[in-house]
């Protein structure tokens, strides 16, 4: 009888685990290197995403590590087979040297979030006489 209860609870637990479905997300680019720009330039890059799972992808929040990096994301669900993008604007004013900006995408994937990275070199603008 004891083994019957163990089997019963194993079946209950395993069915609960498999019942929780999440979107399967494929990022076309997790890292974008913008190359070299001059201080003061503003650039815009896109991180493309495809939902390859059976459940809608819901992006609830996108945060960056710096106020110079502003993300925009789709607020509507991304359904199975659909493609969308997160657009990030970077303002290089006051940012000279190698830049490495992290963008945290909070969504309903198993892990709960995905970290994307924007990097590149900002060279100082020439001084005017």
Automatic annotation (TrEMBL):
<dbReference type="InterPro" id="IPR011467">
    <property type="entry name" value="DUF1573"/>
</dbReference>
<dbReference type="InterPro" id="IPR013783">
    <property type="entry name" value="Ig-like_fold"/>
</dbReference>
<protein>
    <recommendedName>
        <fullName>DUF1573 domain-containing protein</fullName>
    </recommendedName>
</protein>
<feature type="signal peptide">
    <location>
        <begin position="1"/>
        <end position="19"/>
    </location>
</feature>
<keyword id="KW-0732">Signal</keyword>
<dbReference type="Pfam" id="PF07610">
    <property type="entry name" value="DUF1573"/>
</dbReference>
């Amino acid at each position: 009888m004891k083994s019957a209860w163990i089997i019963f609870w194993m079946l209950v637990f395993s069915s609960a685990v498999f019942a929780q479905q999440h979107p399967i997300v494929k990022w076309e680019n997790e890292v974008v290197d913008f190359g070299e720009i001059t201080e003061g330039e503003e650039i815009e890059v896109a991180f493309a995403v495809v939902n390859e799972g059976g459940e809608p992808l819901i992006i609830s929040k996108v945060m960056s590590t710096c106020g110079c990096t502003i993300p925009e994301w789709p607020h509507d669900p991304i359904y199975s087979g659909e493609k969308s993008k997160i657009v990030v604007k970077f303002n290089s004013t006051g940012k000279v040297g190698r830049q490495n900006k992290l963008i945290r995408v909070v969504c309903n994937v198993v892990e709960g979030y995905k970290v994307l990275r924007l990097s590149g070199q900002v060279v100082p603008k020439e001084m005017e006489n």
